[in-house]
Amino acid sequence: MGAQVLFAPIDRAGLRRARRAALAVLGRDEHEGSESGSAEEQVAELGDALSHALLMQGIIDWKDVCLMADGDDAGPGEVLECTDENKALVLSDPLTFEAFDAAYVIPFVVRERAKNAFAASPSGTGAAATEASDIAPSPATPAPKAGAKRAPTARKPRRTKMQKSSGTS
User: pTM higher than 0.85, yes or no?
Assistant: First the structure.
């Protein structure tokens, strides 16, 4: 599309704020379900609202984002400043929304799914992480001796032998 957009990283606090904003836009409480539409429609509606809220708070700045002068998208357009009103105007176009969503929200979602779905447990010792047991059934066999002898490690100190004096019996 020719524009450059600077996004803020998505953190947990931003994700919670976006979730609340998405639910507020949909007119729902955080713990309340909706009776209208199928589950797939509700998930799609919530996903779009969440993406919109993440984009609204995640877009920090942009360059070369323009409002086209005519309907044919020909000729110079009016350069838009990065304000909340202009963000909402730009995101109201489905093509632009999909492009921004694919560049910002979708990669975050894919990383989170990969991190949460494939990590079997926080310590990494769950069944999905280690399909075979990682505990040895028997003690390890000692490595073959290399050539150097081990130093003596006696538990008692060595007794020194008293030398006999010469010439006396």
Answer: no
